[in-house]
UniProtKB/TrEMBL annotation:
Required for the formation of a threonylcarbamoyl group on adenosine at position 37 (t(6)A37) in tRNAs that read codons beginning with adenine. Its main location: cytoplasm. Coiled coil: none annotated. It catalyses: L-threonine + hydrogencarbonate + ATP = L-threonylcarbamoyladenylate + diphosphate + H2O. This is Threonylcarbamoyl-AMP synthase. Belongs to the SUA5 family. It is found in: Cytoplasm. It comes from Virgibacillus xinjiangensis. It comes from the Bacteria. Residues 14-200 form the YrdC-like domain. Keywords: ATP-binding, Cytoplasm, Nucleotide-binding, Nucleotidyltransferase, Transferase, tRNA processing. PROSITE patterns: YRDC.
Length: 340
């Protein structure tokens, strides 16, 4: 695995980008930063290249990939002409953490869409991703650059830990910004449906186009989610994680009770809550939900088997970006406790 280090995102080393683009054009797999998480890219029009992604990640074959493009013109080369509200969303939120699911015109390889008639497409808002996409002039299929099941990578070191030796290259552009994946929006109906909550909130979408629906499978566990990837357990830390709703005293009582059983407890919480609690190890995720989102995956990866037996994580309000944070935490959790 070749590792290119981008020292300064404002003045990107053109040669590193050219080399990485050449690897992609030859059918290799290259991880790169986006504003959400690192992606593992391959030429979306090359079926063999795309199958390299599935192999490297150990990803189930029925889970489609998002095609990344540099600009809007490229979008119309990949999909059928969309509903007018898609243009309004493109104006408002792209480049940015919003993925549009649209009827595919068949330009991307069949394994990108896992055989579905629709294609997920997004225009990432990161200077390294943008330059790489422009340099190779291809749609780049890219899932998050982690081993399947693990938390998504928000630093190049996370990618290296999971995939080094399994991929052709890694463009190291430092830590990502949002820290959670893009919102996946099904735009094949008159009213769009959120299939995965993410960096653009439902409230933001509704402020531009009015009513937006949410896949009912996100609220319950029984329905089959419309985004194939949402049915899998995900984001798993090395040790069990309990997601806990309750006041500070209830959280401390729970920690003390588990410590008495001999468990070493790692606490994951917002800064204010964390400062008021005692545990064997603590990670303060931040003072507001945007900071908490940005630090979440690194927090999940920091607690190691051997140091900690159980992670106790504070539950957050499910509004705005809190929707996406709680969606990921529920998947990472082995238990969800609601204390009085
Ligand atoms: O922020 C992101 O979206 C990151 C960065 C790298 O761009 N990518 C990412 O990709 O999170 P991935 O593969 O980890 O998640 C893609 C999600 C999966 O849940 C997948 O099932 C869903 O999007 N998806 C992709 N194409 C779809 C389609 N045609 N229909 C329904 N769901 C789709
Ligand atoms: Mg992923």
């Amino acid at each position: 695995t070749t590792r290119w280090k981008i020292q300064d995102s404002e003045r990107i080393d053109g040669q590193a980008i050219e080399e990485a683009a050449a690897v992609l054009k030859r059918g290799g797999t290259v991880a790169f930063p986006t504003e959400t998480v690192y992606g593992l890219g391959a030429d979306a029009t090359n079926e063999e290249a795309v199958s390299g992604i599935f192999q490297a990640k150990g990803r189930p074959q029925d889970n489609p990939l998002i095609a990344h493009i540099a600009d809007r013109e490229q979008l119309y080369e990949l999909v059928e002409r969309p509903f007018p509200y898609v243009d309004m969303l493109l104006d408002a939120f792209t480049p940015g953490p919003l993925t549009f699911v649209l009827p595919s015109n068949g330009t991307c390889a069949a394994n990108v869409t896992a055989g579905l008639p629709t294609l997920g497409v997004r225009i990432p808002d990161h200077p390294v991703a943008q330059q790489l996409l422009r340099a190779c002039r291809l749609p780049i299929a890219a899932p998050s650059a982690n081993l399947s099941g693990k938390p998504s990578p928000t630093t190049a070191d996370h990618v290296w830990a999971d995939l080094h030796g399994r991929i052709s290259g890694l463009v190291d552009g430092g830590a990502t910004g949002v820290g959670l994946e893009s919102t996946v929006l099904d735009c094949t109906q008159e009213i769009p449906i959120i299939l995965r909550p993410g960096g653009i909130t439902r409230e933001q979408l509704e402020s531009v186009i009015g009513n937006v629906m949410v896949d009912p499978a996100l609220a319950g566990k029984d329905d089959r989610p419309k985004a194939p990837g949402m049915k899998y357990r995900h984001y798993s830390p090395e040790v069990p994680l309990w997601l806990v709703e309750g006041n500070v005293q209830a959280l401390q009582d729970l920690i003390d009770q588990e410590k008495q059983k001999g468990q070493r407890i790692g606490l994951l919480a917002g800064t204010r809550t964390a400062k008021q609690l005692e545990a064997d190890a603590k990670i303060e995720l931040g003072g507001d939900i945007a900071e908490i989102a940005a630090n979440l995956y690194d927090g999940l990866r920091t607690f190691k088997e051997g140091d900690i037996d159980l992670i106790i994580c504070e539950a957050f309000a499910q509004e705005g970006l809190g929707q996406a944070v709680m969606n990921r935490l529920k998947k990472a959790a082995s238990d969800y406790l609601q204390l009085g």
